[in-house]
Design brief:
single chain, 380 residues, alpha+beta, Cytochrome-c3 Hydrogenase, chain B, three-stranded antiparallel β-sheet, 13 helices, 8 strands, globular
Length: 380
């Protein structure tokens, strides 16, 4: 028998649903998700969920010796780990008043640009896959492996290299290494027309990416967008040129820009940046044989190394955007406080939520990948 206060209520039909985008969807990078509400095919609201992958780096770093954090920081951005090593090392070096030898600076630039190319190749394949094109994904991962081979030869690690340390780099280049780098650069440059034919001039990809996830330059600046995502709105800002570090002020390269600010423009900027990185690397390969000397500056015993009290802010240009470390020392053998300014914290949360709202459900994955975020940067 029904309760006396029971009333039968007929619910009106509805075509609104809540969907959990990820982390198993191919358009998601890492253990990341986007919770969206859709009305028909249109997204009416979106909320980012960083998941539980690689959490709490900043607090973990405060419990480790200065040198031990070099093994931790690459995990903050797996596809592009070298900028993490270099930026943290720059902060420690500035705190300790350490001058990095010139040869080590050139080697660091080589590693940074190789890492940038590897990350962009990963992006090409991932962005293509979100539009149903899987051959570029296989190409991108396969070609990226050639760069990982170079990392493995130099450092012993394909993904986490732990090669850039405070004071310089761990070891010098092995015999014949620059020749192998040159051959890899030749091969990658020869592949660009193939990527153009299959992806960047493909009518399906161009049609799917044009006008999707567009933002203006004013919106980008208001939301804290940096890197290729900002340059895709027409602003030619790049830390390597505008606040140079290492030996970037001695290198000749251009800053590619696009004006549309959409997924298509973001893709084109990264394609052009890969070509500029090839250009930079050829200059480095030509210069390194003529630069001798040490590969690292002498530092005290790392297991009993107390850095002077103070705070520093260092920044570099990663493949994702402006990456910075704010590090505070209280004069001890560990960082007192660390804050990582990862570009993905902006791109994968407030920017993604804004751009996904109002989009069609089939474009959500493409918008996510076109921003090229590293999920561990979000919950660092």
């Amino acid at each position: 028998m029904r309760p006396e206060n029971y009333q039968s209520v007929s619910q009106p039909p509805s075509n609104e649903f809540e969907l959990f985008y990820g982390p198993n969807h191919p358009g998601i990078e890492g253990n990341y998700a986007l919770k969206v509400r859709v009305h028909g095919d249109e997204v009416t609201s979106a909320r980012a969920d960083g998941g539980y992958l690689h959490r709490g780096f900043e607090k973990l770093m405060e419990g480790r010796l200065w040198i031990q954090n070099i093994a931790l920081v690459p995990r903050i951005c797996v596809p592009d780990p070298v900028p993490m090593e270099v930026c943290y090392s720059l902060a420690v070096e500035e705190l300790g008043g350490i001058e990095v030898p010139l040869r080590a600076q050139w080697i660091r630039v080589m590693q940074l640009e190789l890492s940038r190319i590897a990350a962009h190749l990963f992006f090409f394949g991932g962005h293509a896959a979100t539009t149903g094109m899987y051959t570029p994904m296989f190409w991108g991962i396969t070609d990226r492996d050639l760069i990982l081979d170079l990392f493995e030869e130099l450092s012993g690690g394909r993904v986490y290299h732990i090669y850039n340390i405070p004071g310089g780099v761990r070891r010098d280049l092995p015999p014949g290494y620059l020749e192998r780098v040159s051959k890899t650069l030749d091969y990658l440059e020869s592949r660009l027309p193939d990527y153009d034919n299959l992806l960047f001039t493909n009518k399906v990809f161009v049609h799917r990416a044009t006008g999707i996830g567009a933002m203006t330059q004013e919106q980008a600046l208001e939301w804290g967008v940096t890197g290729p995502n900002l340059r895709a709105t027409g602003l030619a800002f790049d830390v390597r040129r505008d606040d140079p570090y290492l030996v970037y002020d001695q290198l000749d390269f251009d800053i590619p820009v696009e004006a549309a600010g959409d997924a298509w423009a973001r893709s084109l900027v990264r394609r052009s940046e890969l070509k500029e990185s090839l250009r930079i690397l050829r200059q480095v390969v030509a210069k390194l044989p003529h630069i001798g000397g040490a590969i690292r500056a002498p530092i005290p015993n790392p297991l009993a190394w107390n850095l002077p009290a103070g705070d520093v802010y260092t920044r570099v240009e990663s493949s994702k955007g402006e990456l910075a470390y704010y590090v505070v020392s209280n004069g001890g053998d560990k960082p007192y406080r660390v804050h990582v300014r990862g570009p993905s914290a902006m791109h994968a949360v407030q920017v993604l939520e804004h751009l996904a709202t109002g989009a069609r459900i089939e474009d959500v994955a493409q918008i996510m990948f076109s921003l090229d975020a590293c999920p561990p940067e979000v919950d660092r």
